[in-house]
Design a protein that fits this description.
single chain, alpha/beta, Arc Repressor Mutant, subunit A, D-Maltodextrin-Binding Protein, domain 2, 3 domains, five-stranded mixed β-sheet, 15 strands, about 25% strand
């Protein structure tokens, strides 16, 4: 058995959701796909998938095996790419999905620099504050902020997303600033519909602290919360890539500097590594170079 091919078959079946679709993409017959899956299970020593006539689902062993297969395939593809003839210069259309706030605050400038470097590339930015299906919606690349990515996704970590607790001087003149995280329960807290709508998490004095919050405004994207916060509506927990400049300018005041809000990771997510277009690979490398582990927007403390 060619174990790399077997792992590629397994990953493709998971990504596409069926053996028939995987067989078509890999140019293999359905029986060959089934045989590779069976041989991989024999090698691993455990059943990897529940197979029914209607759908496939991963077993516990399959969930453990999937990310390891992806890692091994990535190493194999990188080794092959390192010794192969360089591809043509990037060209064509890339469709990228990103949240409204990160797209406006950071990604728009990044892709402007990218297309300046590669003028034969066109970028279609889809500003969507929901999780997209990459295949169904024909998205080449999605930028996602999470600490709990779906293990079936192919993802490359770009950078970290930190948050800052803040309010305007106007709000703080009418409401005494919180002195400890528990005080937040007494304030009008403007919350994100998807991230900590009713419970905010911090690390204070080496311990994880969670505090229930409530307020009269919530929104499904951070730019709207920023506007409401700047208008003096209440206290917000906002990403530093968006609010950091307003803290530095004095428009917003950082609160509880000894309580560190929960940080999340920012990933580039894509559908398949197989025969990755040169344009997508170059965009991934470009974003990884631009959005480093210590992002530029955090280099000046807020």
């Amino acid at each position: 058995m060619d174990r790399l091919i077997a792992m590629r078959v397994f990953v493709t079946v998971v990504d596409l959701g069926s053996q028939s679709a995987a067989a078509d993409q890999l140019d293999l017959s359905r029986p060959v796909v089934s045989r590779y899956l069976a041989e991989l299970e024999e090698w691993v020593g455990a059943r990897l998938m529940h197979r029914t006539t209607r759908k496939l689902s991963l077993t516990a062993a399959g969930n453990e095996t999937l990310p390891r297969c992806r890692q091994l395939l990535e190493l194999a593809d990188d080794m092959q790419a390192a010794v192969s003839v360089p591809a043509d210069a990037p060209r064509g259309l890339l469709r990228i999905s990103v949240s409204t706030s990160f797209g406006q605050a950071q990604l728009a400038a990044a892709v402007t620099e990218y297309v300046r470097r590669y003028p034969d590339v066109s970028i279609d930015l889809q500003m969507l504050d929901r999780t997209v299906n990459l295949v169904d919606e024909r998205i080449d690349l999605a930028i996602r902020t999470s600490n709990d990515l779906d293990p079936s996704l192919i993802a490359r970590k770009l950078t970290v997303c930190r948050s800052v607790l803040c309010a305007t001087p106007l709000y703080l003149r009418a409401h005494p600033a919180p002195q400890q995280v528990d005080d937040l329960s007494q304030h009008n807290c403007l919350s994100h519909s998807y991230y900590g709508k009713s419970l905010w998490h911090f690390t204070a004095h080496g311990e994880v602290v969670s505090v229930p919050v409530q307020g009269n405004i919530s929104a499904n994207e951070a730019s709207t919360l920023l506007s409401a916060t700047l208008a003096g509506a209440g206290i917000s927990l906002l990403p530093t890539y968006l609010a950091g400049c307003h803290v530095r300018s004095g428009e917003l005041v950082r609160l509880l500097p000894n309580a560190e809000p929960l940080a999340m990771n920012i990933y580039a997510v894509y559908a398949s590594r197989k025969h990755m277009p040169a344009t997508l690979r170059s965009m991934l490398d470009f974003l990884a170079e631009r959005f480093t582990e210590e992002p530029a927007w955090d280099k000046r403390a807020v």
